[in-house]
Amino acid sequence: MISDRCSRGTANRVSLLMRSASSGSSTWTTLNLNRTDLRRGNLTGANLQRAALRGTSLARAWMVKVDLRGTDLRDADLRDATLRDAIADLTTWWPGKNFDPAAKGVFVHPNLEKADLRSAFLKRDDLTGARANAFTEWPAGFNWQQAGVIMEDDTPGAAVDQDRRSQPRFRHPPRR
Question: Distance between CA 31 and CA 20 in Å, rounded?
Fold first, then answer.
Protein backbone atom coordinates (compact mmCIF):
# COMPACT_ATOMS: atom_id res chain seq x y z
CA MET A 1 0.00 0.00 0.00
CA ILE A 2 1.38 3.40 -0.94
CA SER A 3 -0.05 5.25 2.01
CA ASP A 4 -2.67 4.71 4.66
CA ARG A 5 -4.10 8.12 3.82
CA CYS A 6 -4.18 7.85 0.01
CA SER A 7 -7.48 7.48 -1.75
CA ARG A 8 -7.89 4.38 -3.91
CA GLY A 9 -7.69 6.47 -7.13
CA THR A 10 -4.48 8.16 -6.03
CA ALA A 11 -2.97 4.83 -5.01
CA ASN A 12 -3.80 3.42 -8.46
CA ARG A 13 -2.25 6.41 -10.27
CA VAL A 14 0.93 6.24 -8.20
CA SER A 15 1.03 2.45 -8.61
CA LEU A 16 0.98 2.93 -12.39
CA LEU A 17 3.73 5.49 -12.02
CA MET A 18 5.84 3.05 -10.05
CA ARG A 19 5.39 0.33 -12.68
CA SER A 20 6.40 2.82 -15.37
CA ALA A 21 9.57 3.76 -13.49
CA SER A 22 10.57 0.15 -12.93
CA SER A 23 9.85 -0.97 -16.48
CA GLY A 24 11.85 1.87 -18.03
CA SER A 25 8.98 3.13 -20.16
CA SER A 26 8.70 6.68 -21.46
CA THR A 27 8.55 9.77 -19.29
CA TRP A 28 5.25 10.91 -17.81
CA THR A 29 4.66 14.37 -19.20
CA THR A 30 1.10 14.98 -18.02
CA LEU A 31 0.98 13.33 -14.62
CA ASN A 32 -1.12 15.65 -12.45
CA LEU A 33 -1.03 14.93 -8.74
CA ASN A 34 -1.63 18.52 -7.62
CA ARG A 35 -2.97 18.78 -4.05
CA THR A 36 -2.82 15.01 -3.54
CA ASP A 37 -2.20 13.42 -0.16
CA LEU A 38 0.86 11.17 -0.52
CA ARG A 39 2.04 11.39 3.10
CA ARG A 40 4.25 8.46 4.08
CA GLY A 41 4.10 7.19 0.48
CA ASN A 42 6.87 5.04 -0.96
CA LEU A 43 7.84 6.58 -4.32
CA THR A 44 11.32 5.04 -4.47
CA GLY A 45 12.74 5.15 -8.00
CA ALA A 46 9.66 6.86 -9.48
CA ASN A 47 10.00 8.86 -12.69
CA LEU A 48 8.27 12.15 -11.85
CA GLN A 49 9.80 14.18 -14.67
CA ARG A 50 7.60 17.21 -15.44
CA ALA A 51 4.91 15.97 -13.03
CA ALA A 52 2.57 18.47 -11.38
CA LEU A 53 2.84 18.02 -7.61
CA ARG A 54 1.91 21.56 -6.62
CA GLY A 55 0.46 21.66 -3.12
CA THR A 56 0.89 17.90 -2.72
CA SER A 57 1.49 16.52 0.76
CA LEU A 58 4.66 14.45 0.64
CA ALA A 59 5.46 14.70 4.35
CA ARG A 60 7.55 11.73 5.49
CA ALA A 61 7.39 10.23 1.98
CA TRP A 62 10.16 7.87 0.91
CA MET A 63 11.46 9.35 -2.38
CA VAL A 64 14.89 7.74 -2.79
CA LYS A 65 16.31 7.91 -6.36
CA VAL A 66 13.25 9.80 -7.67
CA ASP A 67 13.61 11.74 -10.94
CA LEU A 68 12.30 15.26 -10.25
CA ARG A 69 13.59 17.01 -13.36
CA GLY A 70 11.10 19.69 -14.37
CA THR A 71 8.67 18.74 -11.57
CA ASP A 72 6.45 21.44 -10.05
CA LEU A 73 6.74 21.10 -6.26
CA ARG A 74 5.59 24.64 -5.41
CA ASP A 75 3.66 24.72 -2.14
CA ALA A 76 4.31 20.97 -1.66
CA ASP A 77 4.82 19.71 1.88
CA LEU A 78 8.19 17.92 1.98
CA ARG A 79 8.64 17.91 5.76
CA ASP A 80 10.75 14.91 6.76
CA ALA A 81 10.59 13.49 3.21
CA THR A 82 13.56 11.30 2.30
CA LEU A 83 14.95 12.57 -1.03
CA ARG A 84 18.34 10.86 -0.89
CA ASP A 85 19.91 10.28 -4.34
CA ALA A 86 17.00 12.00 -6.10
CA ILE A 87 17.84 14.00 -9.22
CA ALA A 88 16.50 17.36 -10.35
CA ASP A 89 17.55 20.16 -12.66
CA LEU A 90 17.24 23.90 -12.84
CA THR A 91 13.69 23.59 -14.22
CA THR A 92 12.44 21.92 -11.02
CA TRP A 93 10.13 24.18 -9.00
CA TRP A 94 10.83 23.84 -5.25
CA PRO A 95 8.39 24.45 -2.36
CA GLY A 96 9.88 27.78 -1.32
CA LYS A 97 12.87 30.09 -1.45
CA ASN A 98 14.35 28.56 1.69
CA PHE A 99 14.19 24.95 0.48
CA ASP A 100 17.69 23.56 -0.11
CA PRO A 101 17.60 20.45 -2.32
CA ALA A 102 21.28 19.69 -1.73
CA ALA A 103 20.69 19.53 2.03
CA LYS A 104 18.03 16.87 1.38
CA GLY A 105 20.44 14.80 -0.74
CA VAL A 106 19.07 15.83 -4.15
CA PHE A 107 21.57 16.12 -6.99
CA VAL A 108 20.66 19.07 -9.20
CA HIS A 109 21.91 18.67 -12.78
CA PRO A 110 23.00 21.97 -14.29
CA ASN A 111 21.40 23.23 -17.47
CA LEU A 112 24.11 24.39 -19.88
CA GLU A 113 21.86 25.03 -22.88
CA LYS A 114 23.04 28.12 -24.79
CA ALA A 115 25.82 28.75 -22.23
CA ASP A 116 29.07 30.38 -23.33
CA LEU A 117 31.73 28.40 -21.47
CA ARG A 118 34.68 29.24 -23.72
CA SER A 119 36.55 31.01 -20.91
CA ALA A 120 35.57 28.50 -18.18
CA PHE A 121 38.10 26.08 -16.70
CA LEU A 122 36.32 22.72 -16.98
CA LYS A 123 39.28 20.36 -17.24
CA ARG A 124 38.44 18.28 -14.15
CA ASP A 125 34.72 18.86 -13.81
CA ASP A 126 32.30 15.98 -13.86
CA LEU A 127 29.17 17.23 -15.60
CA THR A 128 27.37 13.88 -15.66
CA GLY A 129 23.72 14.50 -16.42
CA ALA A 130 24.15 18.18 -17.28
CA ARG A 131 22.04 19.21 -20.26
CA ALA A 132 23.47 21.13 -23.18
CA ASN A 133 22.46 21.83 -26.76
CA ALA A 134 24.07 22.77 -30.06
CA PHE A 135 24.27 26.40 -28.94
CA THR A 136 26.42 25.65 -25.88
CA GLU A 137 29.97 26.89 -26.48
CA TRP A 138 32.75 24.84 -24.88
CA PRO A 139 36.36 25.70 -24.02
CA ALA A 140 38.94 24.65 -26.59
CA GLY A 141 39.81 20.97 -26.20
CA PHE A 142 36.98 20.20 -23.77
CA ASN A 143 35.28 16.86 -24.48
CA TRP A 144 31.65 17.20 -23.40
CA GLN A 145 30.96 13.51 -24.08
CA GLN A 146 33.67 12.33 -21.65
CA ALA A 147 32.36 14.79 -19.05
CA GLY A 148 28.95 13.07 -19.16
CA VAL A 149 26.95 15.91 -20.72
CA ILE A 150 23.61 15.03 -22.30
CA MET A 151 23.06 16.72 -25.64
CA GLU A 152 19.40 17.82 -25.71
CA ASP A 153 19.26 19.04 -29.29
CA ASP A 154 17.32 16.82 -31.68
CA THR A 155 18.71 18.48 -34.78
CA PRO A 156 20.63 15.93 -36.88
CA GLY A 157 24.34 16.61 -36.72
CA ALA A 158 24.08 18.90 -33.69
CA ALA A 159 26.73 16.96 -31.80
CA VAL A 160 29.05 17.03 -34.81
CA ASP A 161 28.53 20.79 -35.15
CA GLN A 162 29.18 21.13 -31.43
CA ASP A 163 32.45 19.21 -31.71
CA ARG A 164 33.53 21.59 -34.49
CA ARG A 165 32.57 24.58 -32.37
CA SER A 166 34.75 23.41 -29.45
CA GLN A 167 37.84 23.23 -31.68
CA PRO A 168 40.29 26.17 -31.63
CA ARG A 169 39.33 28.72 -34.22
CA PHE A 170 41.79 29.34 -37.00
CA ARG A 171 41.53 32.28 -39.32
CA HIS A 172 43.23 32.29 -42.65
CA PRO A 173 45.33 35.35 -43.43
CA PRO A 174 43.66 37.72 -45.88
CA ARG A 175 44.54 37.21 -49.55
CA ARG A 176 46.54 39.89 -51.29
Answer: 12
DSSP 98: T
CA dihedral 24, 30, 35, 36 (to 10 degrees): -40
Domains recognised in the chain with CATH numbers = 1-109 (2.160.20.80), 110-176 (no CATH)
Strand partners, 88: 108
Short-list 1, 3, 31, CA closest to 17? 31
- What is the rounded average pLDDT for all residues in the chain? 77
Burial string for 96-134 (b: 16+ CB within 10 Å, else e) reads: eeeeebeeeebebbebbbebebeeeeeeeeebeebbbbb
| pLDDT digit string, tens, across residues 136-149 | 888 888 888 888 88
